[in-house]
Amino acid sequence: MRLDIITVIPDFFQGPVTTSILKRASDKGLATIVVHDLRDFGLGNYKQVDDKIYGGSAGMVLMIEPILNCIESLKAQRTYDEVIYLTPDGETFNQRMANSLSLKQNLILLCGHYKGIDHRIREHVITREISIGDYVLTGGELGAAIIADAVIRLIPGVISDETSALTDSFQDGLLSAPIYTRPADYNGWTVPEVLTSGNFAEIEKWNEEQALERTQQLRPDLLDDSTLD
Ligand code: ADE
Questions:
Q1: Residue 134 alpha carbon, nearest atom of ligand 1
Q2: How far, in Å, CA of 225 to CA of 228, rounded?
Q3: Cβ of 114 less than 6 Å from ligand 1
Q4: Residue 157 lies in a domain
Q5: If 109 and its partner were Cys, which of 55, 144, 167, 184 is the partner (CB 3.0–4.6 Å)?
Q6: CB distance 76 to ligand 1 below 6 Å
Q7: Cβ atoms within 10 Å, residue 113
Q8: CA of 149 to the centre of ligand 1 (A)
């Protein structure tokens, strides 16, 4: 998979891309993440990327041309499955979306900044708009990093224990069962007995029951959320 991230603050991605799961995926050749500085496509000597809002509202908007020039230069090199714009008024990101994006080859993630981007880019160029939650951030960068992480960890081989991505919370629409490691008894805080029994059928049954119980208690909304299949 290849992810092209377009931003006015490329340094923001120093951490996520050079450490963490994203680094591991790129070291293994399973994912390529390329961060593009929108300013490289800015206009004139000052490399202008933003301008005042028509109609007099306060704030600045990212202009059409730098964005379009950047996206067109990428599209000239390969075909993209989606051109995604990160925005609080997009579709709320969830595990189902992460799963489906993890099957794609090439994605562009466009981060808005200031007041956002000229709406004509959204009308004519963007194929999908995603929000990471009902709150307003300074820009789309945190959202792009979250999507990159959630999507790339699902690519087979990125996480060493292949089953672990499949047994995550949300992956089957349920929260995970509680997990434990040694010691089995820490000053009287004990691990549920079944987990140390060696009876794998019983353990699996316990995990399933716990997953359902925790979901009923903590996130009952997930049980009738048909978006998590
Ligand atoms: N940009 C600003 N706020 C955002 C949000 N909640 N999700 C995605 N991108 C954003």
A1: 6
A2: 6
A3: no
A4: no
A5: 144
A6: no
A7: 20
A8: 16
Q: Note whether residue 116 is domain-resident.
A: yes
Report the half-sphere exposure of 226 (CA within 13 A, side-chain side).
Answer: 0
Instruction: Identify the sign of the CA torsion 134, 137, 139, 143.
Output: negative
The CA 224 to ligand 1 mean position distance, Å, reads 26
Residue 160 belongs to some domain of the structure: no
Decide if 49 contacts 103 (C-beta within 8 A).
Answer: no
Atom of ligand 1 nearest to the CA of 86: 9
228 sits in the region (left: phi over 0; alpha: psi -120 to 50; else beta) called: beta
Q: Is residue 125 part of a domain?
A: yes
126 C-alpha to ligand 1 centroid (Å): 15
Where are the alpha helices (H) located in the chain, listed in sequence order? 14-18, 20-27, 64-75, 95-101, 119-124, 141-152, 162-166, 200-218, 220-223
Rounded CA-CA distance 214/145 in Å is: 28
CATH of the domain at 75: 3.40.1280.10
143 lines ligand 1 (CB under 6 A): yes
- The single residue listed with the structure tokens 């089995």 is 184
Give distance in angstroms: CA of 73 to centre of ligand 1: 25
pLDDT for position 20: 79
- Please list the rounded mean pLDDT of every run of 10 residues in the chain (229 residues): 97 88 90 96 98 94 98 98 98 97 98 94 98 96 96 91 70 91 98 97 97 96 69
131 Cβ below 6 A of ligand 1 = yes
Which of residues 152, 185, 218 is at a domain's end? 152
